Amino acid sequence: MTPNQGGGQNWPPPSFSPRTGLFYANASRGFSVYYLYQNEDDEKPQGWGGNDRGGWSEAMLQAIDYKTGAIAWSHKWADSASVRSGLLSTAGNVLFAGDASSNFVAFDAAKGVPIWHDRLHTSITNGPITYQLDGTQYVVVAAGDTVYAFAK
């Protein structure tokens, strides 16, 4: 069955850029077999349904043309685990995302090319935010119990 339990788009939040016309989403392509077991130790499946066991998956960040549904670009994450980071697209044509390896990554939003990254101490599980204060632009993201602020 596809998508597996890590597939679909709900949380984490995607992003849209009116400047590029692209909708950005962390995606997971996965295949799995679902069995209905009486209990966790049962070795004989009773039928289809229940939780997935085994299978294959890959995680990626995708930019989708909202007018056509075509994939404009796709960046496969090195780790196949589902990514739970929200996305932030900016008017400066930068897209911010977290990967499954605890990196906070900035992309060229039009081309999908990574332009900067910083390794955090744990995975990002929220959507980054940006704001300007006293002429300085900040990007803020949380990882675990720590809030990181980056300024330019």
| Large-scale geometry | globular
Mean pLDDT: 86
Number of domains: 1
Which structural category do the helix and sheet elements fall into? mainly beta
Spell the H/E element sequence.
EEEEEEEEEEE
Helix percent reads under 10%
User: Which CATH architecture is right?
Assistant: Beta Barrel
Low-pLDDT runs of 5+ residues are none
Biggest sheet, spatial arrangement of strands: 1-2-3-4
What CATH calls the topology is Lipocalin
Helix count from the secondary structure assignment? 0
Number of separate strands: 11
> Could you tell me the strand content as a percent range?
over 45%
Gap from first CA to last CA: 45 Å
Cα Rg: 18 Å
CATH class: Mainly Beta
- Report the sheet with the most strands, covering strand number, pairing sense and barrel closure: 4 strands, antiparallel
Describe the model:
With 152 residues, the chain is mostly beta strands. The chain has a single domain, classed as Lipocalin, CATH 2.40.128. The protein contains no helices and eleven strands. It has a four-stranded antiparallel beta sheet with strand order 1-2-3-4, with no helix packed on it. It has a four-stranded antiparallel beta sheet with strand order 5-6-7-8, with no helix packed on it. A three-stranded antiparallel beta sheet has the order 9-10-11, with no helix packed on it. The N and C termini lie far apart (45 Å). The model has no long low-confidence stretch (mean pLDDT 86).
Features:
mainly beta; four-stranded antiparallel beta sheet; Lipocalin
Concise structural overview:
This protein has 152 residues and is mostly beta strands.
